[in-house]
Each structure stands twice: as C-alpha cells, then as structure tokens.
Design brief:
This protein is α/β, with parallel strands linked by helices. The chain has 11 helices and 13 strands. The protein has helices at about 25, 35-40, 55-70, 95-105, 120-130, 155-160, 210, 220-245, 260-270, 280-285, 290-300, and strands at about 5-15, 20, 45, 80-85, 110-115, 140-145, 165-175, 180-185, 195, 220, 255, 310-315, 320-325. The model has no long low-confidence stretch (mean pLDDT about 95). The structure holds oxa(dethia)-CoA.
Length: about 325
C-alpha cells in the first residue's frame, strides 16, 4: 500500500431504456402542462423501462458491461461491485449479486448502497477507499434506478420528475496524482418523512393496507425538499472547494445530481461557475436518482481532459448529501 495510491475512473458505461415519457404524455395522465414542467424543473422527457420482467439489475448490468468492455477488462478481474440504488430488484439478494452473476465476475464480492440521490457519491467514495487501501485493484461502482417502479402516475408532485437509467464506472489505482482526491458526506434523519417510501420494509411490510394507502410509492414534500436541496448542495460544494483551496477558476466541471435545473443553477452560482462548466442532462432523462451523476460523466467524457478538476455534488432522501473532488 502506498499513500499516493488513488482511485481513478478508467472507464464509464451507461444504459438508458428506449421508451420515452414526454411532458405531453404526462399531460394526459395528470393535471399538468409542458410549460410548467420545463420552467419549474428543466425536464422535457424521461426514459422508462417498460418491460415488466426487467428490474434495476438489468440496467446496472448493461451499464457495467459497457464500462468493462470499453476498458478491455475481463470480468474475472473485477474485485468488487457496488450498486447504489433505492430500487433494488429485491430487498435481498443484493442487486450487486445479480450483476456479479450475469457479468461473470466470478472473483468479485458486492453489495448495494442505499443513500437515495447521494448514493453514487457514497458508493464512489467507498470504492475509492477500497482501491486506496491497496486490497482491491478493480472496483465497479454503479448507480442505477428504475424509479418508474415506485412512482404513482396519478401524483403530479412526483411523476413529472423521475426517470429510469443506469451509469457505471470502473475504478483502478493510480499514482500519477489523478483520481478521487477528497470527499465530504453527511446525513440528517431529522425530517425523514419529507422524502420517503414508507411501505415494503420491516416497519410496514407489504399488506393490502400498505397497497391501498399507496405506501409503496415515493412521497415528497417538493417545496421543502427544494429549499433544503438548494442550500445543502451549494453548501457542501463550497465546503469541498474551500477544504482543497480550489477557487472557481480551478474547477473544470461541476457534476451535480440532476433533481431540478433550478437547484443545479443555484449551486453553480454559489460556486462562481458559468453554465459552460456545469454538466446537465436533466432535460432528457429527468431525475434518475443514483444514476444521474454517472450518466453525466458518460455524456461528457469526450470533453474531459486528464487532470481536469471535477466537483461531484448530490443531495437526496434521508436526508443525505455528498461532495467529491475528482481529478480526471
Ligand atoms: O432528488 C432528490 C431531491 N429532490 C428534489 O430535490 C426535488 C425538489 N423539489 C422540486 O424540484 C420542486 O419542489 C418541484 C418540481 C417538485 C415542485 O416545484 P415548485 O416550484 O416547488 O412548486 P410548488 O410545489 O411550490 O407548487 C407551485 C404551484 C402550486 O399551485 P399554487 O398553490 O401556487 O396555485 C402547485 O399546486 O404549482 C402547482 N403544481 C403543479 N402545477 C402543474 C405542483 N405540481 C404541479 C405540476 N403541474 N406537476
């Protein structure tokens, strides 16, 4: 083990279902309109995995397969698989185990990380520590969510926001100064009811009553979450910049969780970054929860240069928050 050993993203993969759910489609489902959705959220369409036989593990596997094939890595070389998700195929076994089997990662162990929209940042920091320890050489970090499986398509407060998708990165060790430099992570369970799914766990196991009361769907107090998210994402992004003595001129890209374009803009403003330095694809995919950040990395990978300073930043249910400083 070397103290200069860091975890570098050596490959990125993704998966997006073909089916699109547009604002016009939503106008037919709930009392809403395209203009309201676009101006309040920045979203014009989302992807939906319609095949009822396919869960989150299918998308996670597809994204991870692309990442390892691009890297030219044999599946047997993978040491660990971390899947960030709030929509696992099952409560258990972990989605990571399903991915491990289908990819043929016969030497890997894995588990799921449940931290809602901050899940990918949490999983990436965990994967980075595995690499830095010297114990593991190749770690797959996946963010994947089939949000359509927990959305009530009669609830306009949530159904307009979320979409399905997956992104995956391969982490390998490097001593050239690039890779994960630092991260800050927080959680605050004080107001857990503001963004949650109450049914299906050990507190409210599935029953006729939980189904009738719609407890297997996501519930959100949008206005309050919006305020908290706007403040927390900007705060934690500034904190990681200050901790690493970075000013806005040092940051090549903000890679924000894609919850609402107005939250992304407010975070960038506080960091002193122009829109040309902010990754945003919320218009096309909506909020894919744990998948938003790796999907941004996938879409922007050709524009990234070795050594670019990236700030990844997220806020989500829990509440959870995370910011990670990555040298590309
Ligand atoms: O990713 C995890 C973290 N999640 C987030 O960060 C999401 C945070 N929240 C949000 O993005 C926003 O709060 C929403 C997009 C959910 C809602 O936007 P908002 O600007 O906070 O709207 P609002 O809830 O304050 O509602 C404003 C108005 C209300 O009407 P009145 O009372 O002003 O007459 C709502 O009834 O807009 C109405 N409204 C809608 N109208 C058309 C609420 N939802 C809709 C809708 N279509 N879908």
């Amino acid at each position: 083990m070397s103290s200069s050993l860091k975890a570098r993203i050596t490959s990125v993969g993704h998966f997006l279902p073909d089916d699109k759910l547009t604002n016009a489609d939503l106008e037919r489902l709930v009392e809403t309109n395209d203009e309201w959705i676009r101006t309040r959220t920045g979203i014009t369409e989302r992807r939906v995995l319609k095949d009822p036989d396919k869960g989150t593990s299918y998308m996670a596997e597809r994204a991870a397969r692309e990442a390892i094939e691009k890297a030219g890595v044999d599946p047997t070389e993978i040491d660990a698989i971390l899947v960030a998700t709030v929509t696992p195929d099952y409560m258990f076994p972990a989605t990571a185990c399903l991915v491990q089997k289908r990819l043929g990662c016969t030497n890997a162990f894995g588990y799921d990380i449940l931290a809602a929209c901050s899940g990918f940042v949490y999983a990436l920091s965990t994967g980075a520590m595995m690499i830095e320890s010297g114990r593991y050489k190749k770690v797959l970090v996946i963010g994947a969510d089939k949000m359509s499986s927990i959305i009530d398509y009669t609830d306009r407060a949530t159904c307009i926001i979320f979409g399905d998708g997956a992104g995956a990165v391969l982490l390998e060790g490097t001593e050239d100064g690039t890779g994960v430099q630092d991260f800050i992570q927080r959680c605050d369970g004080d107001e857990d009811e503001l963004l949650c799914m109450r049914g299906g766990g050990s507190k409210n196991p599935a029953s006729h009553a939980t189904v009738e009361e719609k407890m297997h769907f996501i519930r959100q107090d949008g206005k309050t979450v919006f305020k908290k998210a706007t403040e927390a994402m900007a705060d934690i992004s500034m904190e990681i910049m200050e901790k690493n003595t970075l000013d806005s001129g040092d940051v090549a890209w903000l890679v924000p969780h894609q919850a609402n374009q107005r939250i992304i803009d407010a975070t960038a403003r506080r960091m002193g970054l122009g829109t040309d330095k902010v990754m945003s694809n919320i218009a096309f995919y909506g909020n894919t929860t744990a998948a938003t950040i790796p999907l941004c990395l996938y879409d922007w990978q050709d524009k990234l240069n070795r050594g670019d300073n990236l700030i990844l930043s997220a806020f989500g249910g829990g509440f959870t928050a995370g910011a990670l400083y990555l040298k590309w």
